Amino acid sequence: xxxxxxxxxxxxxxxxxxxxxxxxxxxxxxxxxxxxxxxxxxxxxxxxxxxxxxxxxxxxxxxxxxxxxxxxxxxxxxxxxxxxxxxxxxxxxxxxxxxxxxxxxxxxxxxxxxxxxxxxxxxxxxxxxxxxxxxxxxxxxxxxxxxxxxxxxxxxxxxxxxxxxxxxxxxxxxxxxxxxxxxxxxxxxxxxxxxxxxxxxxxxxxxxxxxxxxxxxxxxxxxxxxxxxxxxxxxxxxxxxxxxxxxxxxxxxxxxxxxxxxxxxxxxxxxxxxxxxxxxxxxxxxxxxxxxxxxxxxxxxxxxxxxxxxxxxxxxxxxxxxxxxxxxxxxxxxxxxxxxxxxxxxxxxxxxxxxxxxxxxxxxxxxxxxxxxxxxxxxxxxxxxxxxxxxxxxxxxxxxxxxxxxxxxxxxxxxxxxxxxxxxxxxxxxxxxxxxxxxxxxxxxxxxxxxxxxxxxxxxxxxxxxxxxx
Length: 470
Ligand SMILES: *[C@@H]1O[C@H](CO)[C@@H](O)[C@H](O)[C@H]1NC(C)=O
Ligand SMILES: *[C@@H]1O[C@H](CO)[C@@H](O)[C@H](O)[C@H]1NC(C)=O
Ligand SMILES: *[C@@H]1O[C@H](CO)[C@@H](O)[C@H](O)[C@H]1NC(C)=O
Ligand SMILES: *[C@@H]1O[C@H](CO)[C@@H](O)[C@H](O)[C@H]1NC(C)=O
Ligand SMILES: *[C@@H]1O[C@H](CO)[C@@H](O)[C@H](O)[C@H]1NC(C)=O
Ligand SMILES: *[C@@H]1O[C@H](CO)[C@@H](O)[C@H](O)[C@H]1NC(C)=O
Ligand SMILES: *[C@@H]1O[C@H](CO)[C@@H](O)[C@H](O)[C@H]1NC(C)=O
Ligand SMILES: *[C@@H]1O[C@H](CO)[C@@H](O)[C@H](O)[C@H]1NC(C)=O
Known about the structure:
Radius of gyration: 22 Å
Mean pLDDT: 79
Low-confidence stretches: 1-30, 46-56, 97-101, 109-145
Family: Belongs to the peptidase A1 family.
Active site: 166, 357
Region (Disordered): 81-112
Keywords: Aspartyl protease, Disulfide bond, Hydrolase, Protease, Signal
Largest sheet: 11 strands, mixed
Protein name: Peptidase A1 domain-containing protein
Bound molecules: 2-acetamido-2-deoxy-beta-D-glucopyranose
């Protein structure tokens, strides 16, 4: 066995071979599938940090720290994937990313791959004929938190999983039936119980800068999202989960990436690209609405949900570089204090790229940009104990420094309830604010913003659409 290496040429070939079928089947989006989403892995208005008797309105410090770490790792890992898939480094990747694996980390990685190389493969049995199931909705419950999760099933007969729908990455990761106790508390994918599974005889290793890993094997199997089937979809079955994926910190089984193939760590087409290739979706796009209101969050596959947004307010912005959902941001401002003019952090003349990422909670940018944002706010301070670059401001003034972000010439307001992540600690009068430093010059636009808009991820036209909520 050897770590997966698939050249970008192969990806390109696959994509050209199966062009978007969107224009062939535009009739009304009646076949579109609504996948209800719920929040998980609580960060906001937390319920932990004070044992069995949580105080509402508190930020969940442990989850926020874990989440920020995970975000950082995800970007390191996907920037690295971009480089290996395309042969050039991503323009937004900081020079220090990807960091070279230390010799010791590399030795450990090889040793753990070695250890698994003796596991039996799973030969493919005959392909069972399947009637495609009727697209339908799956019921939704609301939890506090920041990751947006929904249900998928894999294989024949179907095995069910909850996954984080993450537009900031491009791979499917599930715990394997052969995973050790690091996967306890999660549903596990058992390829031997699926007649459509194929062992691709490749290992993968999601190795990050700090040497932590999710190591596993690649399979191809049929993945059902709502009623749509991605046939022979590549997925990773993890044999170990790193701390960030372990229950109860991570209470979802796995991840499902909705980014472009260029950032696939497996170097394989992501599930939405497979659906397009299969001609399964009426339009090559998906729409996402995230809401703290129970039952209002959904992923709409193959169409937009016109009931959810104000259609005349929709603006589209071209993807600058297909890898992440990366677009140009026209502005980021907040009101000035004491009736002074707006504080402008970004505008059309100051260049700013934004990555639209449902898998990130906050709006994350450079320390300098964040400093500029909070500089004149009395009582604003960094809270290093919550994570690098996290700021807090007095709870009673957070409502007067809410950001407005402009895309495609239209300004979108961020509400107080989404910008305020909760009280710093029990007796603190400060609250954690939704824009953090600790990143780079570009902006990762996470749920703090996305909960205020309807977002269209238009793969066919390589653009992102935003509309005001209905
Ligand atoms: C998987 O989920 C579907 C849809 O919710 C359900 O009908 C089915 O019983 C579940 N299967 C298992 C094995 O839990
Ligand atoms: C799981 O397997 C990994 C890789 O061999 C190992 O490093 C880790 O200690 C194991 N964890 C447990 C709890 O057995
Ligand atoms: C993986 O290895 C097994 C056993 O050697 C083999 O039967 C199978 O065809 C291989 N799968 C692929 C996709 O090459
Ligand atoms: C899926 O894989 C199986 C086995 O490799 C193959 O027989 C089948 O034709 C593939 N189906 C599609 C739609 O690619
Ligand atoms: C919909 O958006 C348009 C453009 O922003 C605006 O003029 C209109 O008032 C909005 N309609 C509703 C019902 O909010
Ligand atoms: C706004 O007014 C308050 C109270 O007068 C003062 O403390 C603060 O420095 C002023 N802030 C700015 C940005 O002018
Ligand atoms: C845009 O931002 C730049 C850099 O922050 C600033 O120099 C310039 O004055 C701003 N332009 C406008 C029109 O606000
Ligand atoms: C908060 O205040 C209460 C009452 O004054 C006190 O008992 C408690 O220890 C304080 N908690 C913290 C974390 O300081």
